[in-house]
Amino acid sequence: MGLFDIFKKKSENIVTQAAVPEKTAPVVQLASKEEDIKLPFLCGDICEYELRYKYDDVDVVGTKYIEDLGPFNHLIIGQEVEVVCEKDNQYDDTAILINTKNGEKLGYLPKSSKIKDMAFDFIKKSKPIQAKVISINKNDLTFSVLMGFYDRPEPSRYEVLNSSDCKRKIFKLTANANEDMQLALGCVSEGDPVDFDYDFDKEKYIVSAEIDEVGYLGKKDSKCFESNINESDYEAFIKEVSETENDKIKASVIVFWKESEDL
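RE: above sequence
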């Protein structure tokens, strides 16, 4: 075989390799950075819930086994979907379905996933779950969702004590017209914790919030606090903040105490 024949053979191989058709790329839709795929705001009867957990890319599986693919074919990025239990599933009694808002089946959360177990637990306890589509693969019949798990906020320590049977007393704060204390009072609100320290020079208790000192107990109230509360296990908080007719900020504090270790 001559040099010409060898070169011709190599050229044929190159053409043959180039002629092999490439595989068709999957039809994939992804949410762009500019697109709004935030979870919807809760409203109405469930507005008191707050977002507790969020998962950005949850795979939905099993779409290829669903008889009617019409709802999947019409699926779009950003579409809100439902997360529900499939009670009559003969293979998994904790199966979690992803449906359209009209109740049409789209797929399932993976059987062995922790998110599926969490979703089942939240639904069982009537806690809201919200989800939106963030990617779609039409060829593979798969898609993924953004999921938010909601729960009622934990009550604050102030709310817990305020609804308890603890003893309590409200004290008005005094001697807080100076600029520093007025600035501090402008930054506090009901339920903020406060501390008490005895001012030996003024012979009364000074009250401090996290930001700064916010006032004093009067001498009479200081004696009351000293004799009835100071030796007990107590917790104190801002009770009320308001403005006077002279555009000054005034405040009161509430002290809870209980002579036991469960305060």
